[in-house]
Specification:
By secondary structure, the protein is of the alpha/beta class. It folds into three domains: 78 residues, PhyR, sigma-like (SL) domain (Butyryl-CoA Dehydrogenase, subunit A, domain 3, Up-down Bundle), CATH 1.20.140; 48 residues, PhyR, sigma-like (SL) domain (Butyryl-CoA Dehydrogenase, subunit A, domain 3), CATH 1.20.140; 117 residues, 3-Layer(aba) Sandwich (Rossmann fold), CATH 3.40.50.2300. Helix content is 55%, strand content 9%. Strands 2-1-3-4-5 form a five-stranded parallel β-sheet, with helices on both faces.
Amino acid sequence: MSVSLSQEIAPLLPYLRRYARALAGTQQSGDAYVRACLQALVADQSIIDTSDGVKIGLYRLFHVLWNATVVPPVASDGTSSIFEQTAQQRLSTMPPESRQALLLSTLEGFSLPETARIIQKNVEDVAQLIQRAVEEIDRQTKTNVLIIEDEPLISMDLRQIVESLGHTVQSVARTASEAISAAKADAPGLVLADIQLADGSSGIDAVKEILAEMSVPIIFITSFPERLLTGERPEPTFLITKPFNPNTVKAGISQALFFKGTDAVAA
């Protein structure tokens, strides 16, 4: 592999390893596939097509080798959290192509056209694969949802979205104290939280107190993303900006519940 190509690929490897881990089920198995990909590149760098950029080319090459290479499965080394194990169990129920399309578009953030180029499908097929994966996630992850939102029309919209996915809205809280009391009375499976609440209290403070009592995925839905996206760690794992697209909220709910146990902030 030439120096320039290796320099371009090096910063992409942590992300490829993350993706390979999610796809293969363990870090060891994922790393074995990544090593096979790099060894193939060292032997012949012409096998990578960089016409769409090095990142897409690298992931596309990984997929070609993934489909052609059988790496013996490796048992978990115990480093996976219970939440990663749960995600893997859910992933394992999906057809391989749906699993690949879902992870590329959600975990890795590729667009539909980029995902299509990586797995060598057309965009319509990729959209259908992702939709099937989301439907399977929704089937497996029905839960009770706490909505923390002081605007009645917005809370009505969120209730409709939540219920359209088959979940149950256990409570709608307009203040931080209401939210904390509702969560303590009946532990939710998911929280949708605004930041600025009716009495001037903070949804951020409410979420922090809830997370001190229980582990639950949080999605912040706010007009003030700059209050959370400060450039400093920790930052929210799931953040949706108002005004929101209902489909964005649906996708966020599916992702948060799929990786259930992820805290409100990134690790």
